[in-house]
Amino acid sequence: MTPDIQRPDDTQRPDDIQRPYETRSPGTLAEEPPRNAVPHQAPTPLGRLVATVERLRREVREAHAAADGRALVELAKGILIGQLSCTPAAAARQLDELSRETGLSPLELAADIVNQASRDHVSEVAAAFARRTGTPEPAERSTTVSVRLRTAESGVLAAADDTQAVAESLLTNALGPLGADAVAVWSAAPDGSLALAGHAGFPPGEAARWRHVPPGVSTVARLALRERRLVTLARIQHDGPPSIGHLQRPDGGRMAVPAGTGGRIHGVLEICWPQPLAPQPPQIERQVEALAELCARTMDAAPTADPGALDAVLPDVAELIDLSEGLHDPAVVLTPVLDHDGRLTDFRIRHASSRFVDPAGRPRGDVNGARLLEAYPMAGGESGLFDIVERVHATGEPFRAERMSLTALVDQIPLTSVADISVSRHGAAVLLIWRVEDETARLADLLQHAQRLGRIGGFEENLVTGDITWNAQLYALHGLPTTAPPVRLRELPGYAHPDDSAALARFLRAVLRYRRPASVNLRLRRSDGITRHIRVVAEPVLDADQRLHAVRGAYQDISAQHWTEVALAATRDQLAHTEAESAERNRLALQLQHAIMPPTPPAIEAPGVRVAVRYRPAETESLVGGDWYDTVVLPSGLVMLSVGDVAGHGIEAATGMVVLRNALRGLAVTGAGPAQLLSWLNTVTHHLAKHVTATAVCGIFDPSTRVMRWARAGHLPPVLVRDGEAEAFPLIEGLLLGALPEVTYAEREVRLEPDDTLLMYTDGLVERRDSSVQDSLGHLMNAAAACAGDLDRQLDRLLAESRSDTDDDTCVIGIQVG
């Protein structure tokens, strides 16, 4: 039972006008204190005045709640009068007796009586709380819901002309017990804007800020209107768009539901909670939808039509029919068809305009009065036409689309046509206009776009009458306004560059005198000072007597093509010049290299030793490298042997090789050892040869003692062949030349035996892209060990069996001890 409410003067209120929000519903989110509790005031004149104002406000609200309760009781009495055919007094006594017998309050009993009699959405929502899965729902739970919803309905109907009072009644009677602390009722305009029709729980300043929401602004209400369903946001600040009161409730939850009847959406009911909103059960959502339906009834002033009959033409529909007859495109006027529960099921074709053409060939009379899905069942399929009409009818926002596919069934065969569609709502009706795409107009449109994209202008000149026809693109090519007189074909030389006069004269003779098609490229000088490169194509038009009647043709702007060809020609010339320069540089580098290092120089003979050299240049002239070799007998009788490789290819590598080779030969005259020679050569490389790095190995051989002193700068070690076995010298430290300004190199001695062969080489002999240096060096030692015979044959065989695939220069020095 609902507890009684104490008045401020501690008097008891009657049982049948209790405040319904004193009992929580199953969907209550959180217990809240009395909505208008007044804090303790000091006994001052101002405090007493505040207390008096709050008391009067509370009494007014209680009076409104009592009036809502009395309206619900009176409604139940009216139902009893109709069912029992009794007087109002007898109905009141019957209600009191039923209340005592059932143990329910008159307000709860009245709600049950109304639910049983109406069987509407509100009663369905109340019954849903009683049909809970799992444990049975207590009886008073559904009764409380019924009381709350029916009391809210009474308040809404009583204040149907005052949306502000409707909002306050909803918050007080139904939404407050659910934990909500504010409510907003939005009305939707056909242009997509929203207006705040009523509110409760928001400060006046906040409501004034949100009194109008223009079209296209994303809000919570707009989201519900666009999706046409109930929308729940746990936290408005984080989960969704802003809305009224979002600054005062940054973590509060929101629920918005479209308010509509008969398939039309008149507005949105938006409910605010002060705290985050947990997921709600379906019963709560249905209760909110029922409240939104109550709001829609107050916003919809149109009379409800019989859903099953074809009504007489309403005044607004008659005006719409007159409007459709004044259109040049086919149009139909549609009105909604509702079921017995007031839900939209279809649209009826109230009128088809005189320009209406049915794809199936039916006359207008067979279509007028039919339902849309019955006359055109394909409208509910992939085309989505029915969904579009339904959305426009619901929201009022017009819809327009170009080149939309429409499908109709003709003898059970789907035929598709392309049309421009326009759908708009006018009152309770919908106007559907379409323009089927004409094939001729479509081809003309395609031709116009092709001419625009190709910068082509067409013309036709009647030589008999003197009439000239230009399209808009041709005026643009000439730089003339569309109101200017066209340029005649014979006047064209006055607009062309003088250098093109000869070619233009031949063109005009071919067309006008010899009557054959011709074309010419010319430079068109426009009045704005711009010169365009134009190609003119023309053909003669002959009459029945084979006389020249007219000339038609086209102008095409080829300026971009012309300048592209000029740029390509310049690029080709530059490329040819660059290739010639590169070939000349490679030729000079190759000549320089061959002049210093011939491929097969004569062998060097010294006491107790024989030295032979092989040089193999790169097969590709553009890859002329910096490999070098040098063998020279010093004044002291010692023999200096060296090989090296400058990084890179081309003339820079060849000139760098010359510098280093000559520098090393000059330094060797000092009698210094190989380590010192490489140290000095590194200084030369770093300071005197710009941007050059190189590897080298240098040896000084004493024929009298057969001792070889050697040092390396990042180069591969020499290979010694003795008694049919080959072995590489152990690696010693030595940084490549030119990397650092000062480098100290290590030096080693090796005593050679008679018949020993020592090989010094560059990496072009062994390097492969698919093998490591160690594998390639191993192959070289195997090949060297297998070589027998004199020194020249050994070197030739090593070059022939080389597996190198880098196409690099190769130098090999062979030293054979006698």
From TrEMBL:
Organism: Streptomyces virginiae (Streptomyces cinnamonensis)
Renumbered residue ranges of the record's region Disordered: 1-46
Protein name, as recorded: SpoIIE family protein phosphatase
Comp. bias regions, Basic and acidic residues: 1-22
Segments forming domain PAC: 518-570
Sequence ranges assigned to domain PPM-type phosphatase in this UniProt record: 610-817
Keyword field: Hydrolase, Transcription, Transcription regulation
Domain ANTAR positions: 53-114
PROSITE patterns the record matches: ANTAR (PS50921), PAC (PS50113), PPM_2 (PS51746)
CDD domains: PAS
